[in-house]
Design a protein that fits this description.
UDP-Glc/GDP-Man_DH_C_sf, alpha/beta, N-(1-d-carboxylethyl)-l-norvaline Dehydrogenase, domain 2, 441 residues, eight-stranded mixed beta sheet, Rossmann fold, oxidoreductase, 3 domains, LmbL, globular, 12% strand, 17 helices, six-stranded parallel beta sheet, single chain
Length: 441
């Protein structure tokens, strides 16, 4: 089987080995391809060589392990080694600047390496997240050096925790290229089980922006509606569920009120559209979605402060550390930002999340092995992510100093917690009883 890696007709080279790249490598192995994988970060190369992907994405490690055992996966040591292949996939999870826009020098470096080293007729398939019209600049680079190579853009839509399914059998596949034959050939090689929509490069880039901007808009709309419903004494969950029952509203749209969105994904595309809008005189809508989300992100701490006052020396238990429950990565996590703010305010924080990776060294919170350990002696519990372990919690048996819980993500049943003796603050009508919010006239 080892010879399969050297068979260029079945080989795909993947650049990037964090979430997107490691999933792409595993997905291509699932499709029977041989994979050459590269990342400039040594620890990510070592992780791939040991079949230990960085985010703990379900299914990825097992497939990488099988690929290594069968000789179909090889980890390259140099960018040029990646670029010398006939089909090169650019799969960095694009880094962002302080505002959330794409700012990643690795992308241009990879394109330049492809221009220098790719064989005649090679194809560069871009899965990385890039602003619309990036392909114009990259085509200029390629044409200046290698007019005989091809550029394809395939916007990824991998959901954390379900990425393997999304890659292997995508519900929607958009392939952008200048020539239809190039797009079809690339789609057959990378996504043989999908039925692609073939579009221009610009359209493919914009589809990515549009998808995530729409999802971010839905999250913010649901949270704002939930805020108003709670103040009026209505159940936000009931209102949102009945909204989604309307056939004109997508049932899968993320409209249930809960936490603000975090992670780089949605913000990156909203920022991209805001910047494009600023150029063409239409930035306000996307700016507003971002502003609304940033404001909503702070509401759990606002509730906590309103109830407890000064948080200095208060012991706060936090359930959930990652922005996607049941996953490991803390990258761009809202719960982690909340923990940092609590620590800055002088609180003692004990965090519970059985799957999350280790906290950064500069975060002085203690990790608890169980929810009971985290809550014991706490002045309040902040639920920052909808951990599946919360469903079976013995709320009556927990022993905090005060039975106060702030539901920051819509994970709890306030009636059940009330029956167990807890006061539950969050986006639900019982909030009125705690905060004194005005009832509807």
């Amino acid at each position: 089987m080892a010879a399969a890696v050297t068979d260029a007709t079945h080989r795909v080279a993947v650049c990037g080995l964090w979430h997107l790249g490691s999933t792409a490598a595993a997905g291509l192995l699932t499709h029977g391809r041989a994979v050459v994988a590269y990342d400039p970060q040594e620890h990510l190369r070592a992780g791939a060589a040991a079949a230990t992907p960085p985010t703990g994405e379900p299914g990825v490690g097992e497939v990488l392990r099988r690929g290594l055992r069968e000789g179909r996966l090889r980890v390259a040591d140099a960018l040029a080694e990646w670029a010398r292949n006939a089909l090169c996939v650019l799969a960095y999870d694009s880094a962002v600047d302080a505002d959330g826009g794409v700012d990643d020098a690795r992308l241009a470096q990879a394109v330049a390496a492809f221009a220098r080293h790719a064989p005649a007729g090679a194809t560069l398939a871009v899965l990385s997240q890039v602003p619309a019209h990036t392909h114009v600049r990259w085509r200029r680079t390629l044409l200046a050096h290698r007019p005989d190579v091809n550029l394809v853009h395939i916007p990824e839509n991998l959901r954390l925790g379900r990425a393997m399914d999304d890659f292997v059998a995508p519900a929607r596949l958009v392939v952008g290229a200048e020539e239809r034959c190039t797009a079809e050939r690339t789609a057959r090689s990378l996504f043989p089980r999908a039925t692609p929509a073939y579009v221009t490069l610009t359209e493919a880039e914009l589809v990515k922006h549009a998808t995530n901007a729409y999802l971010g808009m839905c999250v913010s709309f649901g949270n704002e509606l939930g805020w108003l419903a709670a103040h009026l004494g209505a159940d936000p969950q009931v209102v949102a569920r009945l909204l989604k029952a309307d056939p004109r509203v997508a049932d899968a749209a993320p409209l249930l009120p809960g936490a603000a969105f975090s992670g780089a994904t949605l913000r990156r595309d909203l920022v991209a559209l805001s910047r494009i809008g600023a150029k063409w005189g239409r930035p306000e809508f996307f700016d507003t979605v971002l502003t609304v989300n940033d404001r909503h992100a702070a509401f759990p701490l606002d509730l906590l402060g309103a109830e407890l006052g000064n948080l200095k020396d208060r012991r706060i238990a936090v359930a959930g550390l990652t922005y996607k429950p049941g996953t490991a990565t803390l990258r761009d996590s809202l719960p982690l930002r909340l923990v940092r703010t609590l620590l800055t305010d002088g609180a003692e924080v004990v965090a519970y999340d059985p799957v999350a990776e280790d906290l950064p060294d500069d975060v002085g919170a203690r990790r608890a092995a169980t929810l009971a350990d985290a809550v014991r002696g706490a002045d309040a519990l902040l639920v920052a992510a909808a951990l599946p372990e919360l469903d079976g919690a013995d709320w009556a048996g927990l022993r905090p100093a005060a039975r106060l819980v702030v539901d920051g993500c819509g994970a709890l049943d306030p009636a059940a917690l009330s029956a167990a003796g807890w006061r539950c603050l969050g986006l639900h009508p019982r909030w009125q009883e705690v905060t004194g919010a005005h009832a509807a006239p």
